[in-house]
Specification:
This protein is mainly β. It has no helices and three strands. It has strands spanning 8-11, 22-26, 31-37. A three-stranded antiparallel beta sheet has the order 1-2-3, with no helix packed on it. The protein starts with 7 loop residues before the first strand and ends in an 8-residue tail after the last strand.
Length: 45
């Protein structure tokens, strides 16, 4: 059985250690361009 990661905000896989932490929106299939500061309470894009 394949596990599917549900849509949501997750740690940005492209995050560098030089920048403040960010989260990126996962739409259930792929990463989107939507990025926010980590720990921000915000609704889905």
């Amino acid at each position: 059985m394949t596990q599917v990661t549900p849509p949501g905000w997750y740690p940005d896989p492209g995050q560098t250690h030089d920048a403040p932490p960010t989260e990126r929106w996962w739409d259930g299939n792929a990463w989107t361009a939507e990025v926010r500061p980590a720990g921000t309470a915000q609704a889905a894009p």
